[in-house]
Amino acid sequence: MDDNYRPILVTAPTTDAVTIEQAKKQCEIAESDTAHDEHLYQLIDRARDEFETDCDLCIKSQTWRVYTDDMEDEMQLQKGPIQSITSIKYYSTEGTLTTLASDVYTLDVANRTLHLAYNKFWPATLPRWDAWEITYLCGYSTVPPMAVQAMLILIEKYFLGRESLKEPEFRTYQRLVSKMQRSTYP
């Protein structure tokens, strides 16, 4: 797949990776104090976005779509961890958007790679930039504790209005990001 084909977010996460109670505790705000709740919810989203970008991962379940002009064996999907393929559609040579049968391909979840199934072939398509549409669900069903800890570090930084993390916090955050990036985790 050409690097120009970037995934498009179809459905954002519907739940937060960090609870408001966890964020309040990290920022040393009393649970009964609701004055900062709206701001904290924004910081929770911002921390998840930054952590997902830093790790190149999806923390909570979300749906992504990618378009490509050609399918190839061992096509790697860019977002992960992948839970499942929702659908693969293609424009047939007649110009009809058609759903590909799921027995034509397999998914290597660990490597985020689509493979052509044994003795199968990719159907012919119209020559267009969006000849193929791959929709997939990715994210963790349970947020790893390392990810929660890293996001809490960011939430505290944002809440206190710091431009950057202090050295010990920065090293801790970097270690957590590094561990989450490893292909062997969890």
What does this structure look like?
This protein has 186 residues and is an alpha+beta fold. It contains 4 helices and 8 strands, in the order βααβββββββαα. The strands form 2 sheets. A 5-stranded antiparallel sheet has the order 1-2-8-4-5, with no helix packed on it. Strands 3-7-6 form a 3-stranded antiparallel sheet, with no helix packed on it. Helix 2 (37-55) packs across helix 3 and helix 3 runs antiparallel to helix 4 (167-181). The chain is elongated and about 60 Å long. The chain starts with 7 loop residues before the first strand and ends in a 5-residue tail after the last helix.
Strand content: 15-25%
Mean pLDDT: 89
Unreliable stretches covering 5 or more consecutive residues: none
Report the count of strand segments.
8
Q: Report how far apart the termini are.
A: 27 Å
**Rg (C-alpha, Å):** 20 Å
The major beta sheet can be summarized as: 5 strands, antiparallel
Question: Order of strands across the biggest sheet?
Answer: 1-2-8-4-5
**What series of H and E elements makes up the topology?**
EHHEEEEEEEHH
Counting DSSP H or I runs of 4 or more residues, the number of helices is 4
What spatial form do the alpha-carbon principal axes imply? elongated
Helical fraction: 25-40%
